[in-house]
Specification:
By secondary structure, this protein is an alpha/beta fold. It has a single domain, classed as Rossmann fold, CATH 3.40.50. The chain contains four helices and four strands; from the N terminus they run E-H-E-H-E-H-E-H. It has a four-stranded parallel sheet with strand order 3-2-1-4, with helices on both faces.
Length: about 110
């Protein structure tokens, strides 16, 4: 629920190790109490993000989220929503396609209009 000043009580960060997501949550936590649901892969980056958010004054729940396993990730989010209301969602998750062969060769580069 948003406060009378329009400040969210809780946010969901999907792709929670994104610097944009973390900065958004840190900024929002400066406006008052904030609960963050940090949805990201189980990595050292997620642990660091949770530490940063807690240091900024937020309370944090961590949820395993991997877009490569969407069914499992959506189940984890459903379980989160069973006991928590989320006011704002920040989606900062992305997947790169296969990068094999996507980089131009030196010959292709020299022929380009650049």
């Amino acid at each position: 629920m948003l406060s009378g000043a329009g400040h969210p009580d809780s946010i969901l960060l999907i792709g929670g190790t994104s610097q944009i997501a973390i900065a958004t949550a840190v900024t929002l936590s400066s406006g008052g109490p904030l609960h963050v649901v940090l949805a990201a892969r189980a990595t050292a980056g997620r642990t660091a993000a949770a530490t940063t958010l807690r240091a900024a004054g937020a309370t944090v729940d961590v949820v395993d989220f991997d877009a490569a396993d969407l069914d499992r990730s959506l189940t984890a989010l459903d379980e989160t929503f069973d006991h928590r209301v989320v006011d704002v969602a920040v989606v900062a998750q992305g997947q790169l396609p296969d990068q094999t062969g996507s980089r131009p060769t030196r010959r292709q580069w020299s022929r380009s209009a650049w």
